[in-house]
Amino acid sequence: MALGISKKYLKFFVENIDSRYTILVGGRRSGKTWSTFKWLHFLASGKPKTVMVAAASNSQLLATINDFQECLGFHVQGSILYGMHFVLSNGSMFQFKSFDEYTKCVGQKADILFLNEAINLDEKSFTTLVQGITQQIFLNYNPTQKNTYINKFVNEKKTNILRTTWKDNEHLTEAMRGEFEAIKDRAMKPYASPFDIYSYRVFYLGEDAEMGGKVFPLLYSIDDEDYEKIDAKEVKGLDFGFVESRDFTALAGVKIHNNNLYIKEYIYDNIECQKDVNLARRMRELGITEYEPIACDMAGLGKTRIHNLVTAQEGEWTGDISSGFYCFNASKGKIIDGLKRMTNFDKIFITKSSANAREEMSSYELDASGKPVEKYANHLVDAIRYACNSYNYI
Q1: Where are the domain boundaries for CATH 3.30.420.280 in the chain?
Q2: What average pLDDT does the segment 266-279 reach?
Q3: pLDDT tens, residue by residue, 145-182
Q4: Percent of residues, the chain, with pLDDT higher than 70
Q5: Is the pLDDT of residue 53 over 70?
């Protein structure tokens, strides 16, 4: 592999060395970001250039910087707030910037732009940003949307766009290849969920596809007594309700055994509106052990909600631990990644007493952009997601 780039990518870059827009579309682990960084390093090693590496959010930029450092072995200096960069020995500079606001795109200048996950940046910001780029623009993204504005920059012969999949990544391990084959296997099942089919089209085939429809089409029942007999640890997840009467606090427990997910609903009630109801007391009445770890969303007002909700008349708020219950910050991640983890199990079982959990999961849908449809309640789904995401960390 010349320059550390596989032949397919190298041929594409060479053929488009004078193209204004160079576009790579591929599923996860297709090697497109890695190959782009290798090529940009080659371009920057000649005549000194300024290469702007950009993303639509700080979190996406940090992930891109990690890829850059792992790919090239360089250490990026600075901070998100005050600017991040790396300078080559010939004077070429890699600048790393996030553009979560349109105003940040105004007045930017560079010789080359590499916009990672380009479809996450809105069209107005993009067209403003590229006005300050004097030479080439490289765009990478997963095909998770159809008919994006980026299609406007594909030339008539479509020679400046390359579609790849995980099969084009020569660095992929056998274990990783097995994970992709598992995606295909799930999508081929008679009761495959729209999420399984979507994952297969986007991440296995590299096709343009949009998420939509029910996420959990097939759910199984289990007696509560049989749930208790499952020889696996239980991790609970807690999703806090707000003050509006329509919002609920949800507490659910999950067990994972033989690649099956087992779910039990404990609480589904508007506890915060019912001032006489004490969450900690309810939890004790249900037999939940004191100091039992509970995964919660502690972002934003999360800690305040724990203070208000998980408290006993004789208890005192001391931080994460209150009135005998250990509420820790759940490993949340992106909603779509948590749902993918939940659908990766062979089967999902819900106890017969968990009517609300079954109703929520049966009706849980995503729109075309992969976001939950808001007309359906998702409190228990969120609680279950927190527990699943945190299961291996307890």
Answers
A1: 214-393
A2: 68
A3: 776 899 899 988 899 999 998 888 888 888 888 888 88
A4: 85
A5: yes
Q: Where in the chain is the domain with CATH 3.40.50.300?
A: 2-172
pLDDT for 228-251, tens place per residue?
999 999 999 988 776 555 678 899
Q: What is the value of pTM for the model shown?
A: 0.61
Q: How far apart are CA 233 and CA 253, in angstroms?
A: 10
> Class for domain 2-172, per CATH?
alpha beta
Give 76-105 pLDDT, tens digit per residue.
999 887 889 999 999 999 999 999 899 999
Return the number of other C-beta atoms located less than 10 Å from residue 150's C-beta: 20
Burial of 302 (0-12, 13-18, 19+ CB in 10 A): middle
**In the CATH hierarchy, which top-level class contains the domain 214-393?**
alpha beta
